[in-house]
Design brief:
465 residues; alpha+beta; eight-stranded antiparallel β-sheet; 13 helices; globular
Amino acid sequence: MTDTTDTTDTTGATDLSAHWTARLAELSARHSVPGASLGIMHRGELVAEAAVGLANTEAGIETTTDTLFQIGSISKVWTTTVAMALVDEGLLDLDAPLVSVLPGLRLAEETLTAQVTVRHLMTHTSGIDGDLFTDTGRGDDCLEKYAALLADAAPNHPLGATMSYCNAGFTLLGRVLEVVTGVQWDRLMRERLYAPLGLTHTATLPEDVLRFRAAIGHLGDPPAQAPQWGLMRSAGPAGLICSTPREVLKFARLHRDNGVTEDGTRILSAEGVAAMQTAQVELPDPYVIGHSWGLGWFLDTWDGHRVHGHDGGTIGQSAFLRVLPEEDLAICLLTNGGDTASLYREVFAEIARELADVTMRPGIEPAAEPVAVDPADYVGVYQRLSSRLEIVERDGGLAMLDRITGPLAELIDETEHEYAMHPVEPDLFVVRRPGLKQWYPVVFYTLPDGSRYIHHGVRATPKAG
């Protein structure tokens, strides 16, 4: 490659970074996002980086492209990647009962204990109530202690009957990895991913993260600094990785390159990469993040083009990763408060259109014409460990009283909200949360056994009365 070509490529990347720095600043201000960091990878190269605003508004710390944000549940794809590498090595079987690895495992039901598998955990179909946010300490035994607590967590659906987003299942998966390898999860991730990928700004433990410039979350409207920086250590495999867009995209490039790092080290087989991007279960709510789930990744379609990705949300921080494999495009956005969903939609739609000529799938909205619904079909209480949803008649329509309960309520200031429900079609409504522009679906559906459920926030909640 000639020097002229190198200069041209660098200039193009510099111009694109400058463009997106200005654009990200404009859009972040529009959506009240204190700080944001963006990376774009196209055709295997990092073609743009941008960072704007403040990583910490009270301390006045500016966001840079090296600032570490919490990537939240994008961590689940990293945990899945290491698990799939162990499958390659014959150390783990996706469809063997977990008790073959964890003989002491006890869940709330005997059938669930005997039959739940790694595949159930990766696809959020185990039925284990997913939002058990219990602090089991800072010790290296935190995942072992957490797994023991699941004996008291009542299932929220029968094994494999539907999909319900399950943080607890990924903490349990992390414990499986520890037992199979004999290596504690945080160290396992460093050895199996961070080091081989050459990641210098990726970590999980606060004492490692705080060696760098680090963002803190902001809550409310206008956004104010969150009272707590992060979640408990036991949530690690489900959502505690901190990183930068540049390094998240290096992870995405590993999957682009069929499991091989830039220096030629194979971490995961091409078959494992393909399996992770193959649909395993359809989503009852296909209107927000995707139509189905693979292994770790969720799967979507934009304008006829395949998309896989994951989002992350912690205490006032939100993360977004999307990969368009046919267009060889990957985008990562990390943020720390405000209307992050609206920022994500504007930024990613613009990038996909400009670099790949792809139109993002539009968001869901209320029906333009009246929809005939019988309130009696929906009113009642729907409940699981961390959530109580009461559907009531209100002013001739329906409203959802949303109450956060259980251990999760201890992490959140405002635990009760009421949302007006706007029909889209029978069994499908949308609500709008305070301070946000995006509509969120509320899907009513029935399992084969006749039990009635709501799917909202990617979670299944059974009717309790």
